[in-house]
Amino acid sequence: MKTYIYKAQSTDGSEVKGIVNAVDEYQAAVQVREQYPIIISIKEQPDRTSILTMDLNSDHIDIKSLSVACAQVAITLRSGIPLARCMELIGNQTENKNIRRIFLSTAEDVSSGAGLADSFERNGPKLPPTFIETVRAGEETGNIEQSFQSMADYYDTLNRTHQKVKQALIYPTFVLAVAVVVLIIVMVFVIPSLANTFNDLGGNLPLMTKMLIAMSNFFAKWWVLIAIAIVAVILAWKFYVKTPNGRIRQGKAQLRFPIWGNIRRMDGASHFASTMAMLISAGITVNHAVEITGKTLENYIMQMQIAKVPERLEEGHSLGESMKDCDSFPETLREMCAIGEESGDLDQTLKVIGDFYANETDNATKQALAKLDPIILIVLAVFTAFIVISIYLPMFTMYNYM
Question: What is the mean pLDDT of the chain?
Answer without folding.
Answer: 82
